[in-house]
């Protein structure tokens, strides 16, 4: 496995755990798999299950608030809840749609990264080992954010529903919790993939800068060769950077 594939899979693992099938297609190097073979894979049905849970639960919550819960709380509070919830759900599905529509372009960028590593014999710089790294803090931060969101949302829904059966209450909490987690994860799906690609090409740029620093202490034809290779690398990364900037503009919009 190349550096790009390893870094990309590590950065997007939370999406793959949540059944984002387009992540799998964006990183796989073989050609497109026939539909019949795709339908026989357990991963496809797991993805369909996750998306079904998200769609059914979110639609059910909105209809529940519109049809049944206006007598339990104030009109303004319910209206605000429906508007905010519809906005979050719409934004989430737009993020998923943007990612699935751009999966082919992301796959091309991954292909360029593979060819770059093969042609340049790329080896990443050794990373300084830290007890707590930025990636660890980011993962824990995402986990805490999801947990807070799930707790607040479940408390809000339990306030509107009077359930006396403990098993039913536990089951409802599990279903609502899974839907809440999927909502948060899918809402940042496009940004997660984009960030993973930026990290890959940033590592390439760091290696180019390291090569330039090393070339200062080398003379003769060796230095010329190193500088020429570094110039080609920087030009290549610059083109990829422009493509990533287009995706960033799309993400911001």
UniProtKB/TrEMBL annotation:
The membrane-spanning stretches of this chain are 45-67, 79-101, 137-154, 166-186
Q: Which domain of life is it from?
A: Eukaryota
Q: Which UniProt keywords apply?
A: Membrane, Transmembrane, Transmembrane helix
Annotated protein name in UniProt = Uncharacterized protein
Q: Which organism is it from?
A: Rhipicephalus microplus (Cattle tick)
